[in-house]
């Protein structure tokens, strides 16, 4: 459910782009990201780090897009976010006692430390690939194709990666069930 709510601003961006233009969609994306970030704070009592990071980058790249009337900046935003997340995941291998993925999922699942490490590296590589794919589509195809890819391609790839991750984790989940 959280993942679907995380795509809410992107969905609004898509709808406004299809009905108005890239600049109106960018303004809506900035507003929706702010609502998402502060709405989470109001409901949960704390900020979600990924929402804050996304809001800062959306505001930066979106403002540049609107101020300079150049869509290239908003096209860079998904890459910047994905590569920033990749840096965080990679950095967590060296900073702190646990990789980021273990900090995020460790309360829900018990895994050997080498599996957490592999999972963390897999997510980092996934974010790097998503960022590169975004640039390829953004600068090899028209804006309409990029907007479609931004919603359907990136979301579809993320769902596929999560499903693949689930299959990878399945043997460990069965072991956890046996010990319970």
Features:
180 residues, globular
Please give a structural write-up:
The chain is an all-alpha fold and about 180 residues long. The chain has helices at about 1-5, 10-20, 20-45, 50-70, 70-90, 100-105, 115-140, 145-180. Helix 2 (about 10-20) runs antiparallel to helix 3 and helix 3 (about 20-45) packs antiparallel against helix 4. The longest helix has about 35 residues, at about 145-180.
Which helices and strands appear, and what pairs or packs with what?
Layout: H1 2-6, H2 8-19, H3 22-44, H4 49-68, H5 72-91, H6 100-105, H7 113-140, H8 143-179
Helix pairs in contact: 2-3, 2-8, 3-4, 4-5, 5-7, 7-8
Quick summary of this structure?
The protein has 180 residues and is an all-alpha fold. It is built from 8 helices and no strands. The relative contact order is 0.10.
Unreliably modeled segments: none
Question: What string gives the helices and strands in order?
Answer: HHHHHHHH
Integer average pLDDT: 91
Whole-Å distance between the termini?
27 Å
Major sheet attributes: none
Shape: globular
Percent range of helical residues: over 70%
Number of helices: 8
Strand content: under 5%
The computed structural class is mainly alpha
């Amino acid at each position: 459910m959280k993942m679907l709510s995380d795509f809410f601003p992107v969905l609004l961006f898509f709808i406004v782009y299809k009905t108005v233009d890239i600049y109106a969609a960018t303004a809506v994306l900035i507003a929706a990201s702010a609502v998402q970030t502060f709405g989470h704070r109001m409901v949960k009592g704390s900020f979600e780090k990924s929402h804050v990071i996304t809001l800062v980058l959306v505001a930066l790249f979106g403002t540049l897009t609107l101020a300079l009337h150049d869509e290239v900046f908003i096209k860079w935003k998904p890459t910047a976010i994905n590569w920033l997340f990749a840096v965080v995941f990679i950095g967590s291998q060296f900073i702190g006692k646990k990789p980021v993925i273990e900090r995020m999922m460790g309360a829900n699942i018990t895994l050997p430390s080498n599996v957490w490490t592999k999972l963390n590296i897999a997510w980092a590589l996934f974010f790097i690939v998503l960022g590169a794919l975004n640039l390829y589509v953004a600068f090899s195809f028209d804006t309409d194709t990029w907007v479609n890819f931004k919603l359907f391609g990136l979301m579809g790839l993320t769902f596929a990666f999560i499903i693949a991750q689930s299959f990878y984790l399945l043997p460990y989940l069965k072991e956890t069930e046996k010990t319970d």
